[in-house]
Design goal:
By secondary structure, the protein is an alpha/beta fold. The protein contains ten helices and 14 strands. Strand 5 (84-85) and strand 6 form a beta hairpin. 43% of the residues are buried.
Length: 338
């Protein structure tokens, strides 16, 4: 159940009202204070609550029952967009466009630092790179692991770019203490034990949509993290598996406006993993921005032909520079004209 209180409702009235709800109806009350109103989200068995009685209170503006199983990720509970702010002032979800760019896999300090410098010059605000790589084949390159994390940190020191990289298991959480954004990959979207532990971490989590996950399943995975106390969740659409085999996955651009209508969490798009083809990355990135994405995550490699991982979907720094110019120009146009 969601109760929206009138702007003139005093703090004393809010306190007395929430105390009454928790004691009389045995529900948990989450409170969100917005600019113009206060919203109360009731979690638990609300079937015994007389909705007409609640609506009759002078300080109540509206009340409605919620059917969706996700409460903390639900826009009905949290009408205003969540904005994720990193330590260097970069904000995701505030109406700006942020680009996370870098190699699929960290290969050497020279490689990742050179790419970081190039993508920063083109406007990227966050460095992406894989230290731990989940691969379909056990014989494929699995990443440099802890050494890869150290190389990402070296690139951050050289460029000032925050880093986002993927975690694979609960036991690795301590290793990610100095990572700016922890990524949960598509294969781990429903690794609920990992999500529970990340709920205890005071750090943004980039949650990728699972290979065949519905939007509700995706939001429920975000709910696992938020239920643990961590509200800093960024959703990432990276394509889903369909009957089409021409592309690596099928990029679900409709998910962007759908999720934004259902949830207050920021949404970024990964056209690299979605398409698997470098020549499709730019048009899909442009389409994602047009659909309302808060950010993009793009794979960039200085020598894609010899990349140890996913070279076919990686852009060169020059190609990324061209893409960045176009998407930023589109974002500016949308801001001024739409």
């Amino acid at each position: 159940m969601i109760i929206v209180l009138k702007p003139e409702c005093s703090k004393e009235q809010v306190l007395m009202f929430t105390d009454m709800l928790t004691s009389q109806y045995n529900v948990k009350v989450n409170k969100w204070e917005g600019v113009h109103s206060t919203v109360l989200g009731l979690i638990g068995d609300t079937t015994q609550i007389d909705i007409d009685y609640i609506d009759a209170q002078d300080f109540v503006e509206s009340v409605k029952r919620v059917q969706e199983p996700y409460k903390k990720a639900n826009r009905k509970f949290h009408p205003e967009n969540t904005v994720i702010e990193l330590s260097n002032g970069v904000k995701i979800g505030d109406g700006s466009l942020q680009i996370m760019a870098g190699p699929c896999s960290v290969e050497s300090e020279e490689q990742v630092t050179e790419i970081a410098k190039r993508v920063k010059l083109s406007g990227a605000s966050i460095l992406r790179g894989g230290a731990f790589k989940p691969r379909t084949s056990p014989y494929a390159f699995q990443g440099l692991k802890a050494e890869g994390l150290d190389l990402l940190k070296a690139a951050r020191k050289a460029t000032g770019l925050p880093i986002v990289t993927e975690i694979m298991r609960v036991s690795h959480i301590d290793m990610f203490e100095n990572v700016d954004i922890i990524q949960v990959g598509a294969r781990n979207m429903q690794n609920f034990e990992l999500l529970k532990e990340l709920g205890k971490v005071n750090k943004p989590i980039l949650l990728k949509r699972g290979l065949s996950a519905t939007i509700e399943e995706w939001l429920m995975s975000a709910e696992y993290i938020m239920a643990g106390g961590n509200d800093q969740v960024i959703l990432c659409e990276r394509g889903i598996r369909t009957y089409e085999t021409f592309t690596r996955n099928t990029l679900d651009l409709s998910a962007i406006p759908i999720v934004k209508s259902l949830s207050h969490l920021p949404v970024v798009v990964d056209p690299s993993h979605a398409t698997g083809k470098s020549w499709l990355v730019e048009p899909m990135a442009i389409a994602a921005v047009a659909a309302g994405a808060d950010g993009l995550i793009i794979e960039v490699h200085n020598d894609p032909a010899h990349a140890l991982c996913d070279g076919a979907q990686s852009l060169t720094p020059d190609q990324f520079d061209s893409l960045a110019k176009k998407v930023f120009k589109l974002k500016d146009y949308m801001k001024d004209n739409i």
